[in-house]
Specification:
By secondary structure, the protein is of the alpha/beta class. The protein contains eight helices and six strands; from the N terminus they run ααβββαβββααααα. Strands 1-2-3-4-6-5 form a six-stranded mixed beta sheet.
């Protein structure tokens, strides 16, 4: 089955290519991220700095690094004479991730590691970290539009455990919890059309999205991405066909069938059968 290429015009904000493209735009990226986060978190943000597609390299080559789709730094008032900030990691997910809790645990650890120098002992310098995962499916099966996860104490549920870490899981199809504003925003993220731009905040997002979709460099980047995806899909199909043929040839060889018979049964030429036999 051949890969059906997508059109940039049809992409939704939930697609990580489009979200990263809009967030990284010098003209509208800040407005886009501030509006998106303000609605999803139901509070206003101050001055922000946006970095899209930030890669955090592994400690050693054999270990695993991470790529943050959109990182937002919110500058706060200095405390104790030191700069203070909040970090927001925004991660759209169209692929069904089977183990979000441990996936995000790993991301959180790698993000935090950037803010502590070797030998430093004052952990109060760590910024508060908010990891926002946005999906078009329910990661926990409880039909909520937002799941807010914090660390806490099982023995004393009301005990404040101020580690500054919060995980948000937004389910664009959820029905429970949230607010009408969050619901409308999630519907737009899932289907980013003018019809779903139902309030001023979403219309601002739609303006940003529309502007970025017309940029020549974004269109070129998307065309290159689609070419890579199409090539990988075709390569995967070819590898699957080859694997199936090798298994069929192996079974026929086990029955002591000659190459000429195998080629005839599989409707292949003998040279092609011989080439696959060498790979078995």
């Amino acid at each position: 089955m051949s890969y059906t290429r997508r059109k940039l015009e049809d992409l939704n904000v939930l697609d990580d290519f489009l979200m990263s493209a809009v967030a990284s735009d010098e003209e509208v990226g800040g407005d886009f991220c501030r509006t998106l986060l303000s609605v999803l978190l139901q509070r206003k943000l101050g001055d922000i700095q946006v970095t899209a597609q930030r890669t955090i390299m592994p400690y050693t080559p054999e270990m695993h690094g991470i790529r943050m789709d959109v990182e937002v730094k919110e500058m706060l008032e200095p405390k104790d004479g030191l700069p203070s900030l909040n970090i927001y990691d925004v991660e759209p997910h169209l692929r069904n991730e089977k183990n979000f809790p441990k996936h995000n645990r790993f991301y959180q650890a790698r993000i935090d590691s950037r803010f502590m120098k070797s030998g430093e002992r004052d952990f109060s310098r760590l910024p508060d970290l908010f990891i926002l995962t946005i999906t078009d499916y329910d990661p926990f099966g409880e039909d909520y539009m937002v799941y807010t996860v914090r660390n806490g104490c099982m023995e004393v549920p009301g005990l404040e455990y101020a580690d500054g870490l919060v995980f948000y899981y937004f389910n664009t199809k959820g029905k429970k919890g949230g607010t009408p504003e969050i619901k409308a925003m999630l519907e737009y993220i899932m289907e980013s059309t003018e019809r779903n731009a139902v309030n001023d905040d979403i219309r601002e997002l739609h303006r940003c999205v529309g502007k970025v979709k017309t940029l020549p460099e974004v269109r070129e980047g998307f065309m290159r991405l689609e070419e890579v995806i199409a090539w990988e899909k075709e390569k995967s199909v070819e590898e699957g066909r080859e694997l199936l043929l090798k298994k069929q040839i192996e079974k026929k060889l086990q029955k002591n069938k000659p190459v000429s018979v195998i080629a005839d049964e599989l409707e292949m030429d003998e040279a092609a059968v011989q080439e696959l036999m060498e790979k078995i």
